# Entry
Amino acid sequence: MLPLPSAADIALVADRFDLWPTLLFETYRQITAEPLTRVRTAEQVLDLLWQAPLDQAKLAAMMGLSIATLRRRLAEEGYGYRGLLGHVRQQQTLAALKAEVGLEDLAAGLGYSEARSLRRATRRWFGAPPSTLRRQMN
# Structure
């Protein structure tokens, strides 16, 4: 949904184009409109995790939820935070390996404390270390 214009913006437009009734109706419709569907919590989490590696507390705060509510909603949809974070990390790892991003930079960007942790995760996810995956992709 688009942000609502300010009262000054509405008055300016209405004065210039004599659109007050139309703008008033449109603003009322936007305010009272029911959302057609609720965006799934898991989709919101994935979108936010793609932007930056976030812990559950920061993620919940960004979504305007408590940690418990975030966990409950994800569980209702059949997901967990760690599983979604792992999925995002896997996809970002593959994309970065194709782009030949250095392992230290990639690990830091994904929220790992060191490259060794990323190497272990890569072996767990794909059954091969990053160097092997990189060779197979090229």
Summary: The CA atoms of residues 123 and 133 lie 10 Å apart. The chain has a mean pLDDT of 80. The radius of gyration is 22 Å. The domain at 82-137 is CATH 1.10.10 (Arc Repressor Mutant, subunit A).
